[in-house]
Amino acid sequence: MTVLAIAEHRRGDLRDASFELVTAGRDLADATGGDLHVAVIGGDIDGFADDLNREGVDVVHTVADGEEFNHDVYTQAVEALYDEVAPEVLLMPNTVNGLDYAPAVANGLSLPLVTDAIDIESDDTLAVTREMYGSKVETVVEVDADHVAVSIRPGEWPPAEGTGDAHIEEFDADIDESAVRSTVTGFQEVGGGDVDITEAEVLVSVGRGIEEEENIALVEELADTLGATLSSSRPIVDNGWLPKNRQVGQSGKVVTPEVYIAIGISGAVQHVAGMKGAETIVAINNDSSAPIYDLADYGIVDDLFDVVPALIEEFGGDPPEV
Ligand code: FAD
Q1: What total number of domains does the chain contain?
Q2: What is the pLDDT of residue 190?
Q3: 282 and 234 in one domain?
Q4: Does the C-beta of 304 come closer than 6 Å to ligand 1?
Q5: Is the C-beta atom of 208 inside 6 A of ligand 1?
Q6: How much is the CA Rg of the chain, to the nearest whole Å?
Q7: Given this model, what pLDDT does residue 7 score?
Q8: What's the CA gap between 97 and 107, in Å, rounded?
Q9: For residue 181, how far is its CA from the centre of ligand 1 (angstroms)?
């Protein structure tokens, strides 16, 4: 089975989703004795191609059109790549960009599209697992077709590592400029500066247990002391205490840090959907029956207003008065 995976980059860097796509694609290609092709469109294609040449990648296609993501360019380029590579499975990231072009590509190529995959198995047919009803139910979609497009959820596959011996090939997508109806004129970050919680290695995440906006300073100090990034559950954002780009969860961001410290967070399914991929989860919650303890590796069942200052002192910081 030939697999074609479309990498993603933004502002000069490949996104983690690209390397997760490589793992998903390689697993599928290996299981079926096929090849894995990866394509990168626009930006620093030579640098990106070197980085995408990870273990198990057979070919990296570079498409030298544009700098940043553009719907019309991506749609045309992916359709042209599909015609060239003729894959059985086309993999795209289920990210903001992926959700923008994947349906258009699937429509243009008359392919069935399964979105937001969290697992893919290949037997006689392709079986794609996805979640429904706010992650309460898992469904397996068996695709009765020879060719299929799948978008994969970020954070579900580990990023591919190692260096491969892929062929790197330039591909002329022959973009029809008259059909490119939008241009990227710049980036405007959603409040909160340019913090990207999806890239953080350590996240200190605060929830409703913090009680008041003034108390956020306490967890902020812990984050600073640990060299970590501050994130939160949804009520904190809904209250306007932290900007939207700090929200973890189903309607926020999916994060996969090495360490996730959940402070005063109950562990609702919609929150867990965004952080269950963290390597190590630490919970601080005074309710030992809180669902966060179902997935925490370490837990401190105590009052956060006692625990957090003690942690700040332990790691050499100066706890603020709250
Ligand atoms: P709570 O559930 O109120 O939990 C607070 C926790 O703090 C409790 O467990 C309590 O025991 C503990 N606590 C209280 N005081 C202390 C103390 N002094 N010391 C220690 N612990 C203490 N939520 C998200 O987070 N992200 C999302 O993206 C998201 N998307 C949603 C999408 C939809 C469609 C819907 C319906 C909901 C969504 N939610 C989301 C909301 C979600 O259902 C929960 O309401 C939310 O996650 C709860 O946030 P919390 O854990 O901070 O608050």
Answers
A1: 2
A2: 62
A3: yes
A4: yes
A5: yes
A6: 21
A7: 98
A8: 16
A9: 42
Write down the pLDDT at residue 136: 77
Q: What span, in angstroms and rounded, lies between the C-alpha atoms of 27 and 159?
A: 12
User: 227 with 102, same domain?
Assistant: no
Residue 108 resides in a domain = yes
Task: Examine the pLDDT at 193 and tell me if it is beyond 70.
Answer: no
Say how far residue 100 (Cα) sits from the centre of its chain.
15
The reply to whether 192 falls in a domain is: no
Q: What percent of the chain has pLDDT over 90?
A: 88
Quick one: pLDDT at residue 135?
73
- pLDDT of 313 reads 97
Say whether both 28 and 122 belong to one domain: yes
Question: Which is the closest atom of ligand 1 to the Cα of 265?
Answer: 51
One domain for residues 78 and 35: yes
- Cβ(305) – ligand 1 distance below 6 Å: yes
pLDDT at site 242:
95
Q: What is the pTM of this model?
A: 0.75
Distance from residue 234's CA to the centre of ligand 1 (Å): 7
Same domain, 160 and 243: no
Q: pLDDT tier at 132 (50, 70, 90 boundaries)?
A: confident
**pLDDT, tens only, 213-226:** 999 999 999 999 99
- Tell the residue nearest (CA) to atom 2 of ligand 1: 266
CATH code of the domain in which 263 resides: 3.40.50.1220
Question: Is residue 166 situated within a structural domain?
Answer: yes
For ligand 1, say whether the CB of 247 is within 6 Å of any of its atoms.
Answer: yes
Domain membership of residue 56 as a residue range: 3-179
For range 118-132, the mean pLDDT: 93
